[in-house]
């Protein structure tokens, strides 16, 4: 049983901004609550998160102490500028002055200072090491890709000032790269035993709490922008459930409807299996190689992979030369027994571009030329981003794209991909999308099964080629059962 700590907030939160009043409900609760080290506020869009965060920063007793220091973090500089503009209006009557220098900050007449930062540059998560901030406000926390990056920021939230406790407030909506770790850390799912508005100890023993809010909890936006709620209601699913109602279960932060049904156990390939190799080049970032068994009438099964990433360091490339990658491909194909099975190798068309030589001219050999010299012949894949996104999404949903359980990098990275919120028909290219880009070449090259094109899941009805012992011309037949069962039968396991 999870231990809980009931937090009873004050009915009227004490704060110095007399021109602003908290709305009854979640906003009042959050600003009046005490004792939680970490508080996640939000869920739906339009719940008044930004103003709540600005007022939370000036709650006593911290704001009355001249040694009080706070850190405010947003996703990028543009978002930070918006926060600074709003903070200038919010704090002007309590002696606050927003300064846009390096670093940007808010200075108050009583000596308090809020440092302002963003997470766009490479050193964003580690540059505050050694600093002390008694309060930390992290806006749009769902944009923090991994929990370990958040933990790096958290290390600077501490206090050596008597009477000032260390406190963190996060705001977030369902979705984004950080959806999964936020949901797990704060228990935002419906089936989680932790309840909203109640604080629970984390692994470090300090209390965490989730305070959900919706647009209907913010009368200000309903009065000033009555069409905003209509816009939220008109969004396609799963965005509507995520942004209108703050549902962390319906929208899992994924660009694709991935499930465990897309994973199958490994098995030997038939003697005459048709295999495609796909490749996404990388040097500073990881390269990705995938091997795909094309089964029957167009089912793709990822049977092997090689991900050029530094061990334990996500999204950092191995920096291998082209000839080293080509040699590694041939070595792994021999180890997997695929040497004579690969009938085509697909790669992004850019690998056929000639590289700059030592003088800066574009006269050096291309990656494709170097690969060819090493015995790995590449063919350009179709790189249309919108088309490949649709093909990939349809295959994932219909389960006409499956992966062996041993393909850990695919299973690690693809389910975590989030939508590009500017277009909704591509993945967020700031995420670790190398395996996805590589895999899309297979999706664009092999026509989807007819049932998948019609949106039918292939869980219980799969089209197979003849079994592994057959040397006759390929025939096709149907068998009922899950694909994992069918694969076992096709290879003589039962």
How would you summarize the topology of this molecule?
Elements: H1 26-32, E1 38-43, H2 49-57, E2 69-74, H3 77-91, E3 96-99, E4 105-108, E5 113-118, E6 135-138, H4 147-154, E7 167-172, H5 179-186, E8 200-201, E9 207-213, H6 219-224, H7 228-233, H8 239-245, E10 263-264, E11 274-280, E12 288-295, E13 299-307, H9 322-336, E14 342-347, H10 367-373, E15 379-380, H11 385-398, E16 401-404, H12 408-413, H13 434-445, H14 450-453, E17 461-464, E18 477-480, H15 483-490
Helix pairs in contact: 2-3, 11-13
**Any low-confidence stretches, pLDDT <50, length ≥5?**
460-481, 489-494
CATH hierarchy, class of the largest domain: Alpha Beta
Number of DSSP strands?
Answer: 18
The percentage helix is 25-40%
Commentary on this structure:
The protein is α/β, with parallel strands linked by helices and about 500 residues long. It folds into two domains: about 25-245, P-loop containing nucleotide triphosphate hydrolases (Rossmann fold), CATH 3.40.50; about 260-490, Nucleotidyltransferase, domain 5 (2-Layer Sandwich), CATH 3.30.420. Helices cover about 25% and strands about 20% of the residues. It is built from 15 helices and 18 strands. It has helices spanning about 25-30, 50-55, 75-90, 145-155, 180-185, 220-225, 230-235, 240-245, 320-335, 365-375, 385-400, 410-415, 435-445, 450-455, 485-490; strands at about 40-45, 70-75, 95-100, 105-110, 115-120, 135-140, 165-170, 200, 205-215, 265, 275-280, 290-295, 300-305, 340-345, 380, 400-405, 460-465, 475-480. Helix 2 crosses helix 3 (about 75-90) and helix 11 (about 385-400) crosses helix 13. It is elongated, with a radius of gyration of 27 Å. The two termini are about 45 Å apart.
């Amino acid at each position: 049983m999870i231990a809980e700590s009931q937090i009873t907030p004050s009915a009227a939160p004490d704060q110095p901004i007399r021109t602003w009043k908290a709305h009854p409900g979640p906003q009042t609760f959050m600003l009046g609550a005490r004792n939680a080290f970490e508080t996640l506020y939000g869920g739906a869009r339009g719940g008044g998160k930004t103003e709540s965060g600005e007022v939370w920063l000036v709650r006593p007793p911290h704001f009355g102490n001249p040694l009080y220091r706070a850190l405010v973090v947003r996703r990028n500089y543009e978002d930070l500028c918006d926060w600074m503009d709003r903070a200038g209006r919010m704090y002007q009557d309590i002696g606050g002055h927003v300064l846009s220098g390096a670093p940007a900050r808010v200075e108050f007449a009583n000596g308090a200072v809020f440092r302002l930062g963003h997470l766009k540059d490479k050193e964003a998560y580690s540059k505050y090491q050694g600093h002390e901030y008694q309060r930390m406000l992290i806006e749009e926390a769902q944009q923090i890709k991994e929990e370990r990056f958040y933990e790096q920021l958290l290390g600077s939230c501490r206090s050596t000032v008597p009477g000032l406790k260390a406190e963190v407030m996060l705001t977030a909506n369902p979705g984004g790269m950080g959806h999964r770790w936020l949901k797990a850390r704060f228990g935002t799912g419906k089936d989680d035993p932790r309840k909203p508005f109640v604080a629970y100890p984390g692994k470090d023993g300090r209390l965490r709490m989730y305070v959900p809010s919706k647009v209907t909890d913010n009368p200000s936006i309903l009065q000033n922008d009555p069409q905003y709620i209509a816009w939220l209601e008109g969004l396609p699913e799963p965005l509507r459930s995520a942004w209108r109602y703050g549902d962390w279960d319906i929208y899992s932060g994924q660009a694709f409807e991935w499930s465990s049904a897309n994973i199958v156990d490994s098995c030997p390939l038939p003697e005459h299996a048709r295999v495609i190799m796909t490749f996404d080049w990388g040097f500073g970032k990881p390269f990705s190689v995938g091997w795909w068994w094309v089964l029957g009438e167009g089912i793709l099964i990822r049977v092997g992979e090689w991900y050029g990433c530094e061990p334990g360091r996500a999204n950092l490339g191995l920096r291998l030369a082209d000839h080293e990658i080509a040699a590694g491909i041939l070595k792994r194909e021999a180890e997997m027994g695929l040497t004579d099975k690969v009938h085509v190798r697909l790669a992004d068309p850019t690998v056929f571009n000639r590289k700059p030589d030592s003088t800066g001219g574009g006269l050096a050999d291309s990656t494709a030329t170097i690969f060819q010299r090493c015995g790995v012949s590449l063919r350009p894949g179709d790189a249309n981003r919108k088309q490949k996104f649709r093909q990939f999404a349809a295959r994932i949903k219909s389960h006409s794209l499956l992966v062996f359980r041993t393909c850990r990098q695919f299973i690690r990275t693809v389910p975590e991909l989030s939508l590009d919120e500017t277009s909704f028909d591509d993945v967020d290219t700031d995420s670790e999308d190398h395996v996805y880009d590589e895999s899309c070449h297979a999706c664009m090259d092999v026509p989807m099964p007819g049932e998948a094109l019609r949106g039918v899941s292939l869980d219980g009805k799969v089209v197979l080629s003849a079994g592994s012992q057959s040397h006759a011309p390929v025939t096709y037949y149907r068998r009922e059962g899950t694909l994992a069962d069918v694969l076992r039968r096709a290879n003589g396991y039962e």
